[in-house]
Amino acid sequence: MASLSLAKSSALLLAVALAVAVSADAITFNVINHCQDTLWPAALPGGGAALDPGKTWTFEVPAGTAHARVWARTGCHFDGGGRGACETGDCGGALACAVSGTPPATLAEYTLGNPDYVDISLVDGFNVPMSFQCAGKGPSCAADVNARCPGELKVPGGCDSACAKFGGDTYCCQGQFKDQCPPTNYKFFKGLCPDAYSYAKDDQTSTFNCPQGANYDIVLCP
């Protein structure tokens, strides 16, 4: 019996040690709603939640997470089982997202490494102003892009991207333009939000670094 008890104790200590190690390696994201309306932030990885004005949704991801994103959903309705739909950013009708949201949606994108790489992207259009910062530094898109959106890109709840609206190699930076996007009439996003990606090849002015192990605040309506 003593041997069995010792084995159980050792297993418990190992489990606690592993939990502490995982927690120590986890990166914390705080999504803060400064908008006037309830929003439904989503994250891959991370899931999703309803977030009232003035509240914060906190989740953790493992260090080393790559090609991840956070966005806000608007105009959502969910039942008690977490099924429903959103006007913008919907992810297959689920409260806890397991797939990316549908455009238009302002995106906070990141790859955690040494250093971390972060950006705000309007390549999929715009729905909510956003900042993405570590220790008070990082990109911000605080402009009301929806109010300035050209009529042909306006959709309920947001401002669509030219790629999503019109398609084609020119607007989507693909085919013959995959290495160099030509100028178009729809890079007005850049003028309103200079920190943010407005097209797929906009790396030089839109990618930011944070130190490895940093925690993050994503403010909606900064």
TrEMBL record:
Residues 1-26 form the signal peptide. InterPro entries: Osmotin/thaumatin-like_sf, Thaumatin, Thaumatin_CS. It comes from the Eukaryota. SUPFAM superfamilies: Osmotin, thaumatin-like protein. The keyword DNA repair does not apply. The keyword GTP-binding does not apply. Disulfide bonds join 35-221, 76-86, 91-97, 141-193, 149-159, 163-172, 173-181. Keywords: Antimicrobial, Disulfide bond, Fungicide, Signal. One of its GO terms (biological process) is defense response to fungus. Belongs to the thaumatin family. This is Thaumatin-like protein. It comes from Paspalum notatum var. saurae. The lineage of its organism: Eukaryota, Viridiplantae, Streptophyta, Embryophyta, Tracheophyta.
